[in-house]
Design brief:
With about 775 residues, the chain is α/β, with parallel strands linked by helices. It folds into 3 domains: about 15-310; about 335-505, Alpha-Beta Plaits (2-Layer Sandwich); about 520-760, EAL domain (TIM Barrel, Alpha-Beta Barrel), CATH 3.20.20. The chain has an 8-stranded mixed β-barrel, surrounded by 4 helices. Strands 1-3-4-2-7-8 form a 6-stranded mixed sheet, with helices on both faces. The protein has a two-stranded antiparallel sheet with strand order 5-6. α24 links the parallel β16 and β17 (about 740). It starts with 8 loop residues before the first helix and ends in a 6-residue tail after the last helix.
């Protein structure tokens, strides 16, 4: 990728204005040169314009290039080297103008003033080489050799087939003709390099190409008129050169990227040796028939040597790249294929459309080995298990480690039944005892199998299906389980669970159309009111999810939430419930402007490990225009007791957002009210198991009463859930409970039914207890 030019918008606007000034000055000088060439202006005016306006334009272009080089100094040296080249060029231009002013005529022959041109064109050539042949630093010698081979070969050809005939025809000194011709040759190379860059990059990178095209035209014309002896300072030849230099300055002001792209095709890397070496060999053959000049022979020999160096370095580069590729596809610990290699193989096999099986292996209780015997023992166990799998697996089976203790087996040319059979055989071979650093450890494993194209048609879906089957195998105690079937290791219960989760993915909109056959039903969010104990006012509602399944009817959370948690769907499910619930809460704010109902939504343990949860909650609140204070999030006390730093970070983020946090089902875990003083909790919900018996069981009543008192002392509200009769409500009122929720007030209602219930409640018609 090309890097952006690091300047602000104001600077760019100034650069645009400077570009127009530079172009107009160059065109004005070109007009003067044209007038001299047509005889409309005296020749002296051309020489004066060359010494003032022409040099001024070139110096201005040099300033623009220097400015660009300074801004890009930490990104690429291209502009700095180009500025150096133009600076040396300008030095020779000014030197010639001063000499001509002193002599009163044009300078004849080679005087040494051309050194600036030599240095300048050499620097510009280096800049283009760096632009076209940029690579990793370790391979820079190879790119230099590649560029040098091309330059020397072109110079050898020009020396033999251009310079030699021109010297013989004109009788001029060889040094002068060589200088003029080589300027044209270098210009041509600069033009080719800039065009290649413009073709890859596009946009304003065509400006340097146009500049070098102008220099090609100028130096070609200069060589022709100089050989013919008709060159005059301040003529149209100089005008074209000034326009070219001006365009280089304009490109420095206009090109919006610091450097061009650095990608090269595989063909471009090998084309130089493939062209240079045969061409040099052909020149040597010609030398036997028609002797070449010594300079041409030496240039061809240098080009051949550079091409050989490039070939040698290319071989070394390819060997190292092959090693890096092999290491990139190999697991460091076990020496087998890694996840990247497996995914690449899955892509190839899916593209070939041949059936195959994918099995995911997970070592049971591997964490206990790591914790009890140390990570060295865990690593050794993985090596031994992999060795056993590789020995037992057929030669065509790819064994890959995905990470941790999870291993994948790609079984080619296998239908679902044979893939499961192979997995069962490998399961039998690997489940055994292993010697680990002086300890004998028995290892069990769970294997989940999915098949292409029977279960999925894409690598990601196939991995997901195998992963679901593997987790199902773990719940069955370490067996082999096939996705969506009861083949060995599977059961009707397992099959139903896997199918149910696939359908839940579809109900959540995560599955592709047509991936899950038949209807999957839809998720519904119901609302159960929460009432203030003191005056019976409706203060809020808890959002409860139900799944309206086409075959199984209305499923409660108990019937599918645990499976959703295990299969990684809890984040999507919570987002869906929050979205639907906040949409309903927003409508209540509009229909009942006097009421300030607070919505309560449950979070799972997985949700509290998601560091992006506060951001997503904030987005949903903003989308539905609900204030953070209008939302309460309920979490189980067992999650809080884990004291996970990540969980605490998420809770702090939610509290800073302004969302109230509540402990749900308080009293069912290893609870301690002492944790409430250090956690950002505003509410505690008493578990229905304690609340239901307080009117009949003095022990339950004592526990609830003490919890309410301590909760109030710590500044948190108390909610009693599961209130189903007046006696329970009256006891909670006497104990000072703040809010109650239960079937005594209302069962969970749909959004529309809750709106109707609330309308009746606020109107005082048919009021509930």
């Amino acid at each position: 990728m090309a890097q952006e030019f690091p300047v602000d918008a104001v600077t760019l606007r100034r650069a645009n204005r400077a570009s127009w000034v530079l172009l107009f000055a160059a065109l004005a000088y070109g007009v003067v040169c044209l007038g001299v060439a047509l005889g409309l202006l005296p020749s002296g005016s051309g020489r004066f314009a060359d010494a003032t306006l022409g040099n001024g334009v070139e110096v201005a272009a040099l300033v623009a290039l220097g400015w660009r080089a300074w801004h890009c100094r930490r990104i690429s040296p291209f502009w700095a080297v180009l500025a150096l080249g133009v600076g040396a060029y300008c030095a020779s231009e000014i030197a010639f103008d001063v000499a001509e002013a002193v002599l009163g005529r044009g300078v004849r022959g080679i005087t040494g003033l051309e050194a600036g041109y030599v240095v300048g064109y050499g620097a510009m050539l280096v800049a283009i080489v760096r632009l076209v042949w940029v690579g990793a630093k370790r391979w820079r010698v190879g790119y230099v050799a590649e560029a040098l081979g091309i330059v020397l070969l072109v110079a050898a050809l020009a020396q033999e087939f251009l310079v030699r005939p021109l010297v013989g025809a004109s009788g001029l000194p060889s040094a002068a003709v060589t200088t003029w011709v080589m300027l044209v040759v270098v210009d041509a190379l600069l033009l080719v390099g800039s065009v290649l860059t413009a073709l890859r990059t596009g946009g304003r990178w065509w400006l340097p190409a146009a500049a070098f095209a102008a220099l090609v035209a100028s130096d070609t014309t200069f060589a022709v008129v100089s050989i013919a002896g008709r060159y005059a300072p301040g003529s149209g030849v100089d005008g074209i050169a000034v326009v070219g230099i001006a365009l280089l300055g304009v490109s420095a002001l206009q090109v919006r990227t610091a450097v061009g792209p650095r990608t090269r095709s595989r063909i471009s890397i090998v084309i130089t040796p493939a062209v240079v070496l045969p061409a040099c060999f052909a020149l040597l053959v010609v030398d036997h028939v028609h002797p070449l000049t010594g300079s041409a022979i030496w240039l061809a020999a240098g080009a051949a040597a550079a091409a050989v160096v490039r070939m040698v370095l290319s071989q070394q580069e390819l060997l190292e790249l092959a090693t890096l590729r092999r290491e990139a596809l190999t697991d460091d610990l076990t020496g087998i294929a890694n996840r990247r290699a497996l995914l690449a193989d899955l892509e190839r096999r899916c593209a070939s459309d041949q059936p195959f099986g994918l099995a995911l292996v997970d070592l049971d209780r591997f964490k206990e080995v790591n914790d009890g015997l140390g990570h060295a023992a865990g690593d050794e166990l993985l090596r031994q298990v992999v060795r056993q799998l590789v020995q037992a697996a057929p030669a065509a089976v790819l064994v890959a480690r995905l990470g941790g203790d999870e291993i994948a087996l790609l079984i080619p040319d296998a239908d679902p039944a044979s893939a499961v059979a192979d997995a069962v055989a490998l399961h039998t071979a690997m489940v055994r005892s292993y010697d680990l650093l002086g300890h004998r450890v028995h290892v069990a494993a769970s294997i989940g199998v999915a098949g292409y194209p029977h279960d999925a048609q894409r690598p990601s879906d196939l991995l997901r299906c195998a992963d679901i089957a593997m987790y199902e195998a773990k719940t069955l105690g370490g067996r082999v389980c096939a996705f969506g079937s009861g083949e060995p290791g599977g059961t009707a219960r397992g099959r139903g669970s896997l199918t149910l989760m696939t359908q839940l993915r579809s109900a959540l909109g995560l599955a592709d159309p047509g991936e899950v056959p038949g209807a999957c039903g839809h998720l519904r969010v119901l609302f159960q009111p929460q009432l203030d104990v003191a005056d019976g006012a409706v203060v809020g509602a808890e959002a409860l999810v139900r799944w309206d399944h086409p075959d199984l009817g209305l499923l409660s959370p108990v019937e599918f939430l645990d499976e959703a948690e295990r299969h990684g769907l809890m984040g999507h499910l919570t987002h869906r419930v929050l979205d639907d619930a906040l949409a309903a809460a927003a409508s209540w704010r509009v229909e009942f402007p006097g009421s300030r109902l607070r919505l309560a939504v449950n979070l799972s343990a997985t949700n509290l490990l998601d560091v992006d949860l506060p951001t997503r909650v904030a987005e949903l609140l903003g989308r539905h225009a609900v204030e953070p204070a209008g939302l309460g999030l309920e979490i189980t006390e067992t999650v809080l007791m884990s004291r996970s730093p990540r969980t605490r970070s998420v809770l702090d983020g939610l509290r800073e957002l302004g969302v109230a946090l509540s402990i749900d089902d308080f009293g069912t875990g290893y609870s301690s009210l002492a944790y409430l003083k250090e956690l950002p909790v505003a509410e505690v919900k008493l578990d229905r198991g304690f609340v239901a018996d307080i009117a009949r069981d003095p022990r339950s009543a004592a526990i609830v009463a003490s919890t309410i008192w301590l909760g109030h002392e710590l500044g948190v509200r108390i909610v009693g859930e599961g209130v189903e009769d007046l006696a329970t409500l009256e006891v909670l009122r006497e104990m000072g409970c703040d809010t109650t929720q239960g079937f005594l007030h209302a069962e969970p209602l749909s959004a529309a039914a809750f709106r109707d219930w609330l309308t009746v409640r606020l109107a005082g018609v048919g009021s509930a207890p």
